[in-house]
Specification:
This protein is an all-alpha fold. It has 11 helices and 2 strands; from the N terminus they run ααααββααααααα. The protein has a domain of 199 residues. A hairpin with a 4-residue loop joins strand 1 and strand 2.
């Protein structure tokens, strides 16, 4: 197929792999945004900074405590998620019931503060983070070479996304979370601590961003600016999938990553804008997004 299009197969499949990797990060980050917005009605612009904090936490655990990648996958989401809990308790809680714009402005300001603090401390030059020994090397598939770590990122991202969707959509806990957004008074009357549920949900969304940051650290250099540009694309993914739609974020994230990868093969000049063009078309035809609910 690739040869019929005049494109060498390794080039085509290599770009598809890069698209899947980008899509994995789009999916897991937009999933965190969708969880926070869909269940808490908070537009969390700090998400990119929290993704960056996850990568830096992994780097600091390795360089200051000697704790490697596998420890970072466990500890970084917990540590960064705890900072998210503090943000919700101390700041976002005070904006409950107000227009979304206030939460957006607050989280945007927090993102700039966090990014500035890390830039002052570490500079803007990227810091290397090595691939764990267990995931080095790759597999020769004949038509392309598949790096083990890239395959791991795609696989674990898909697993985390699907597990999160199952918990929110198919379990009693998920039904309580969804009910708390519609009628918190009724849920509170059932003996459920709604404020604590809201806080933990926000912390979980932040932990997803940090988890993505740890996954990204061996692929991209750890930098204070690594989340700044990515978060704009991720917001576009969330809008296309439907604000607050868990399934929409997962499907759209991976799908747009693949489309972006193919665009780099057939029309490289458009690869940086194709997602935003798709967003404009979707908003014109379906303002609620592909998986969003109108009204």
């Amino acid at each position: 197929m690739a040869e019929l299009l005049g494109i060498p197969a390794p080039v085509l499949f290599g770009q598809l792999l890069l698209g899947l990797i980008n899509g994995a990060f789009y999916a897991i980050l937009s999933l965190g945004l969708a969880v926070i917005f869909g269940l808490l009605n908070i537009i969390n612009f700090t998400h990119g900074a929290q993704y960056m904090m996850g990568a830096f936490t992994a780097w600091m655990l390795l360089n200051h405590l000697g704790l490697g990648y596998w420890w970072a996958l466990l500890l970084a989401p917990l540590l960064v998620g705890f900072t998210g809990i503090l943000i919700e308790r101390l700041l976002l809680k005070r904006l409950a019931g107000l227009d979304h714009l206030y939460g957006l402005l607050l989280t945007f300001g927090l993102a700039l503060v966090i990014q500035g603090l890390f830039r002052n401390e570490f500079g803007s030059t990227g810091l290397p983070y090595a691939i764990p020994p267990e995931l080095r090397g790759g597999q020769n598939l004949g038509f392309m070479f598949l790096p083990n770590y890239r395959a791991w990122v795609v696989g674990v991202s898909l697993a985390v996304c699907l597990a999160t969707w199952l918990v929110i959509e198919k379990t009693r806990l998920g039904s309580y979370l969804r009910a708390a957004t519609e009628n918190p008074t009724l849920v509170q009357a059932m003996g459920i601590d709604v404020p604590r549920m809201v806080t933990l949900t926000y912390g979980f969304g932040v932990a997803l961003a940090a988890f993505a940051g740890v996954l990204a650290a061996p692929i991209y250099q750890v930098s204070p600016l690594m989340g700044a540009d990515l978060i704009i694309v991720v917001f576009a993914v969330v809008v296309i999938g439907g604000m607050g739609s868990i399934l929409g974020s997962i499907v759209t994230g991976f799908g747009l990553g693949v489309i972006e990868g193919l665009t780099k093969v057939f029309w490289p000049e458009a690869s940086s804008t194709v997602i935003f063009v798709i967003m404009a078309i979707v908003l014109l035809l379906r303002p609620a997004g592909l998986f969003g609910r109108s009204g």
